[in-house]
């Protein structure tokens, strides 16, 4: 998803496994009719997508849209808006990603790894740097917030945009994290921890998480 708010002058870039769906629904509730809000799948009660498709221009905004593409479609808004996204500790993000692939009815498929070891062996991790940086590795957002500090992040976003502050009121796509190794177990494995952190090296250029 993506939000381009002309009313509050912000652009939200959605990354994977960082409560992006919940954050979008939360932010979209304060957006104006003329703002761009992409659809959610499955739909979320109270969330109204709008202005995400232009038949005349043959362009549209979509889920997990990179900042480079948003910049192409609305360069003026991009240059004057507060642009932000969220990131998460690489190990925690991978555990959440694997839980979704294995346990979510919307994502569970035979082709997906059935065990944590198989997931690690496949090495197809949710690295999202390309969503908020360009091909040269230049950061295109003003702020990368930490998923672990969500409450204070929402307060900061409100202060920067002028939106009234409210705690996160929706929690979508949760409840799938069962039958997995714990965060501490993965962190205790030098081999597993190094594999994940090496994969997220581009992300860790912009936001530091202790390994």
Tell me what you see in this structure.
The protein has 211 residues and is of the alpha/beta class. The chain has helices at residues 20-28, 67-73, 75-80, 90-103, 116-122, 129-132, 150-161, 183-188, 190-199, 201-204; strands spanning 2-5, 10-13, 36-37, 53-54, 59-60, 82-87, 143-146. The chain has a five-stranded mixed sheet with strand order 3-1-2-6-7. It is globular. The model has no long low-confidence stretch (mean pLDDT 90).
What's the arrangement of secondary structure elements?
Blueprint: E1 2-5, E2 10-13, H1 20-28, E3 36-37, E4 53-54, E5 59-60, H2 67-73, H3 75-80, E6 82-87, H4 90-103, H5 116-122, H6 129-132, E7 143-146, H7 150-161, H8 183-188, H9 190-199, H10 201-204
Parallel strand pairs: 2-6, 6-7
Antiparallel strand pairs: 1-2, 1-3, 4-5
